[in-house]
Amino acid sequence: MKVSPLSFSMLQNYGLAIFYFTANSVLTVIFPLQAANHGMKEAEIGLMMGIYMFVCMVLRPWAGQMVSKYSVHTVMKYLLLGHVAALLLYVSFGVESLYVVRILQGIVTAFFSMSMQMGITETLRDEDRGQGMAMYSLSSVMPGLYGPALAMVIWVQGDVSWLLIFITCLAFAPLMFFIRSPLPKVKKENVSFTLEDMRKGMKLARAHKGLIVSSGVMLIGASIFGAISTFLPLYFLTTNTGNVGLYLFLQALVVVGSRFIFRKYIPSDGKWHPGFITLILSSSIIGTTMLAALPLIGSFVYISVLFNGIAAAMLYPTLTTYISFAIPESHKHVLLGLFLASYDLGFSLGGMVMGIIVQFGSYPMMFSACSVIGLLAIIYNLTASGEYTNLEHCDAFQRSK
Predict the structure, then answer these.
(1) Residues 161-195: tens digit of each pLDDT
(2) What per-residue confidence (pLDDT) applies to 15?
(3) What's the pLDDT score for residue 196?
(4) In whole angstroms, what is the distance from residue 119 CA to residue 113 CA?
(5) Residues 291, 301: contact at Cβ < 8 Å?
(6) Within 10 A of 29 (CB to CB), how many other CB atoms are there?
(7) Which of these ranges, 129-133, 137-141, 363-367, has the smallest mean pLDDT?
(8) Beta-bridge partner residues of 3
(9) Measured between alpha carbons, how far is 274 from 209 in angstroms, rounded to an integer?
(10) pLDDT digits (tens, 9 = 90+) for 235-293
């Protein structure tokens, strides 16, 4: 039975997403601070934070097939229990459990967004699907408005007991919204996914230069976002400049506003637009350059919120929209999973590699490196965007569709 995107049962789903991503939003700020307090070096912090998205990358290509095979409802039930287990493990063992907790979070997150999106697709009427996806997207972004600020308020109290109580509540809150939710229980027959499917999909992808270019740009852009997410709180605290909670709140506000205001400008014609991608990457370069200059510009660093926020808001939907047209239907799930994995890998490398730069260099050097790789991404985008980038110029791909 189809339901309305604003029905009570669908509001349950959006609430489930809000509380799930609230835990991630809070802990993304808390974990690096707590690890640094415990004596971890920047490279180790980057590895610990980056392993989360690395696990997502490994499991993402299988997520859609697993959800189809066992039903959205069944997969969501077990992944939410995994969410509870991960957070309670942290509550019980603290800093000593961070690596294991991040791995568990990666496993759960790899399936969560896929389950929610497939659930919305199967639950709503076709004409309501866009509204449902928009509401889910809003639900996943909203915790970025208050999560980091809330994390800093709890952190400055210096009393870990309040943090543990709060995390325990966040562990069980999504389960409360899951009860009697409309997520479908229907299984799909003859669903399989093998390494041979992945090999064939990758071989096909090599025939389409646009997929290669977009995956490369996605990986580089995500590495910048990963570095900012991991090290910005530590950077602000070590330099004693600005308020990290305020900065992250404003950045999330820009992300939400940009996705709404500029949604109609995202190309939706199946063609690669190097100029539009260059504008997005240029925004990121300006933002990270200003962060690198934080000791010199002081409170003016808040202006970088606008540039980093626009870049974070626009790159992912622009590239995923292009990919939705570019991939052939015969290998849709495999190639989409591999493409999304490039974002996970980039985000992971942003923490891991940039942590080494911070440890043996400095935070300004690390953010300068982000600006440099952003410039390299622009060069790659412009030079690699040739006659075979767009769909109509790829005969091999056209024959596969």
Answers:
(1) 889 999 999 999 999 999 878 787 777 665 555 66
(2) 92
(3) 64
(4) 10
(5) yes
(6) 25
(7) 129-133
(8) 124
(9) 13
(10) 998 888 878 888 988 988 998 888 778 877 888 777 888 999 999 999 999 999 999 99
Spatial contact of 136 and 11, defined as CB atoms under 8 Å apart: no
Question: Can you tell me the distance from the alpha carbon of 378 to that of 70, in angstroms, rounded to the nearest whole number?
Answer: 42
3-state SS assignment for residue 125: coil
* Closest C-alpha to 34, from 163, 223, 131: 163
In the block, which residue shows the tokens 């309040």? 162
Q: Which tokens is 49 given?
A: 């934070």
Task: Give the Cα separation of 289 and 300 in Å (integer).
Answer: 12
Bridge partners (DSSP) of residue 124 are 3
CA angle, residues 53, 32, 364, in degrees to nearest 5? 95
* 8 Å CB contact between 61 and 198: yes
Residues 6 or more apart whose CB falls under 8 angstroms from that of 293 comprise: 301, 364
Distances from the Cα of 275 to the Cαs of 120, 196, 271, 339, in angstroms? Answer: 33, 36, 12, 21
| DSSP letter for each residue of 291-344 | HHTHHHHGGGGGGHHHHHHHHHHHHHHHHHHHHHHHS-GGGHHHHHHHHHHHHH
Is the Cβ–Cβ distance between 9 and 181 less than 8 Å? yes
Q: What is the mean pLDDT of residues 303-313?
A: 93
- Tell me the angle at which helices 304-326 and 274-292 cross, rounded to the nearest 10 degrees: 150
Q: Which residues contact 363 (CB under 8 A, 6 or more apart)?
A: 231, 234, 235, 238, 239, 294
**pTM, full prediction:** 0.78
Q: How far apart are CA 168 and CA 162, in angstroms?
A: 10
DSSP annotation of 391 reads: G
Residues constituting the chain: 401
Q: How far is CA 66 from the centre of its chain?
A: 20
DSSP 8-state secondary structure symbol assigned to residue 269: S
Kindly state the DSSP code that residue 265 receives in the 8-state scheme: G
Query: On the CB side of 26, how many CA atoms lie within 13 Å of its CA?
Result: 21
pLDDT at 397: 46
The confidence band for 101, taking pLDDT boundaries of 50, 70 and 90, is very high
Give how far the C-alpha of residue 106 lies from the chain's centroid of Cα atoms, to the nearest Å.
11
Tokens of 38: 């415990």
**Structure token pair of residue 144:** 């970025």
